[in-house]
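Recap slide: Competence protein ComFB, sequence and predicted structure.
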Amino acid sequence: MNLKNLKEKQVMDVIDKILKNRDDVCKCNKCKLDIAAIALNNLKPKYVVTEKGSLYAKSNILDYQYDVDLIKEVTKAIEIVKEKPRHDETR
């Protein structure tokens, strides 16, 4: 197993769920990655290096406040990227 931040997948899952219901936000890969980077920079990372550590860490982050914080940071990041999407820089 490699060094892994468990929150990366969770943030991407939340982004996908929220953006599914938003027609006012770009859903291109670049914008989604920008949203993830902003949100992850504002959340405390949860790194693991073993499968046992991964299972233990996942059980510890299954609480209401964690979900609220995750959704709050992703929502804030979506609004930031919505106002200034960078995907136009590559076109």
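The first helix runs from residue 7 to 20.
Residues 4-84 form one domain.
(End of recap.)
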